Amino acid sequence: MNIPTFDDVLAAHKRIKPYIHRTPLLSSSYLDQLSGAEILFKCENLQKVGAFKARGAVNAVFGLSDAEAGSGVATHSSGNHAGALSYAAMRRGIEATVVMPHNAPTAKKAAVQSYGGRIIECEPTQAAREATLAQVVAESGADAVHPYDDARVIAGQATCMLELHEDAGKLDAVVAPIGGGGLISGTCLSLSQLSPETRIYAAEPANADDAYQSFNKGEIVEKDAQQSVADGLKTNLKPRTWHFVSSYVTDILLASESEILDAMYLTWERMKIIIEPSSAVPLAVILKNRELFRGQRIGVIITGGNVDLKNCPGCKS
Amino acid sequence: MNIPTFDDVLAAHKRIKPYIHRTPLLSSSYLDQLSGAEILFKCENLQKVGAFKARGAVNAVFGLSDAEAGSGVATHSSGNHAGALSYAAMRRGIEATVVMPHNAPTAKKAAVQSYGGRIIECEPTQAAREATLAQVVAESGADAVHPYDDARVIAGQATCMLELHEDAGKLDAVVAPIGGGGLISGTCLSLSQLSPETRIYAAEPANADDAYQSFNKGEIVEKDAQQSVADGLKTNLKPRTWHFVSSYVTDILLASESEILDAMYLTWERMKIIIEPSSAVPLAVILKNRELFRGQRIGVIITGGNVDLKNCPGCKS
């Protein structure tokens, strides 16, 4: 099993620079007051393709040799990685094929198409995604870029924490959402090198708590067809991400569906940024566990901003 | 008539720094492609109080002597200046009284209250606002800080263009919304010093086109009780802002109500930031007048992000 190193992160940061935004850190005195903490939000909703996933996908695609790139790339993804891989392939001028569950949000399907990616739909289960992707790879010879179980992707996602550390300085804790664990793994990878004393919390929907159960049981627990408004967080850990989660994560904190939506609208209203439900889970768990964070400097990774505004989950109006 | 100078702008920038955010410039390759121009958005929706108005209000309040400040400040405003003046007064520890039309958006009334400002409601006409404010000033001895017809306020708003120029470098044109003309006057003041060859376009709702009519007639045209979704842009020019508009503005461009809302939702969807309708008028006029901007570097000032999300104007859902 290929585990990425911090040198891979530094190489990724250099490689992807021309194709990604250096996203800003934002803060809100209102949310600081509400939480009792100082929260620095790393705004990957303002990233290319509207999500941090651009980092890992670009790192994988631009790390291919010309010969490898010739057969294109392929993946399965519930959404943002699909758009990100299509974007990366477009920038390199190669083909991308993406396997998506048929119930993936319209905005995320449209993103893939806008970057020239080819969509193949499947049932919304982990098994169906993986089988369909295997078939695509067998037929096309494409390089499979897994949304998170891929050393190149983890090294790419780790660059987000690298920038957060550079811009924010010393942090007492970092809170990031957990689905398959790619972002958290990258966060662990960078922080274990840059600031090993910073605590790392993963934030997960209670409705899709496979990582929470894994963490408490001490081994990967798989749960299929999980449902949550946080549509990016329904996937399961893999041994490569479990390696980081089990070694470096301080705790996994859960939030209910309504807590996630409340935190999402609070962010829209007070910070004036559009974040998707998955990105609201960290703020939801911070507001739910104030005693854990009171008086501290907290980094939060806002993972993405891709929402169907015409049909957004639980919209209040 | 006291016309602010560029030295006043530099003094304002130094004075207000501890109380405002240095807001980021954002761009969108999608909107660049759509418009055929390179657009750099100065995001004052991410400013303190959610609007550029924090700049002028803080400059006015912190420029007062202790003796002057003792009687507090007062103003009339359809919204963001009211919140901004309350914020500035709170930071200085003095009282703020704001006269607001009774139909001002709930979010903007709530903002005033959250900063400890006192609201006095009036009819939604220019005359009623001014008469009510005069009464407040007579009774309290408060320093009246007009939302735009005030040299201190114009110098404060001018700091926005100062930062945009520092961060963006050379621009072919700048487009900003026009209501009473405070922001445009500040923009003219800074650009006439920093980059006199940059063209300045004011963007106005066709439903509230008093500045457009003034510009074409060559003298101030007053229109009362104008109605537009761009609720911040319904006010009329004054001689002090007309001085700048008539001397430095290249043209005033109009957008319809639906063009404004389309541009607002496009910004929400593609840039992942919440902007209020008034802030969408520049993008609306750029998309409507592509030939005027094609191939050029354009600065756009996103003026604010205060929207009632539960009851937003023309919401699609």
Blueprint of the fold:
2 copies of one chain form a homodimer.
Chain A: H1 6-16, E1 25-26, H2 29-35, E2 38-43, H3 53-62, H4 66-69, E3 73-76, H5 80-92, E4 96-101, H6 106-114, E5 118-122, H7 126-140, E6 143-144, H8 151-168, E7 173-177, H9 182-194, E8 199-205, H10 210-217, H11 239-248, E9 251-255, H12 257-271, H13 277-288, H14 290-293, E10 297-302
Mind explaining what this structure looks like?
The first copy, chain A, is an alpha/beta fold and 317 residues long. Chain A has 2 domains: 6-51 and 150-311, Rossmann fold; 54-144, Rossmann fold, CATH 3.40.50.1100. In chain A, 47% of the residues lie in helices and 15% in strands. Chain A is built from 14 helices and 10 strands. The first copy, chain A, has helices at 6-16, 29-35, 53-62, 66-69, 80-92, 106-114, 126-140, 151-168, 182-194, 210-217, 239-248, 257-271, 277-288, 290-293; strands at residues 25-26, 38-43, 73-76, 96-101, 118-122, 143-144, 173-177, 199-205, 251-255, 297-302. In chain A, the strands form 2 sheets. Chain A has a 6-stranded mixed β-sheet, sandwiched between helices. In chain A, helix 6 (106-114) links the parallel strand 4 and strand 5 (118-122). In chain A, helix 3 crosses helix 8 (151-168). The relative contact order of chain A is 0.17. The mean pLDDT of chain A is 94. At the A-B interface, helix 12 of A face helix 12 of B.
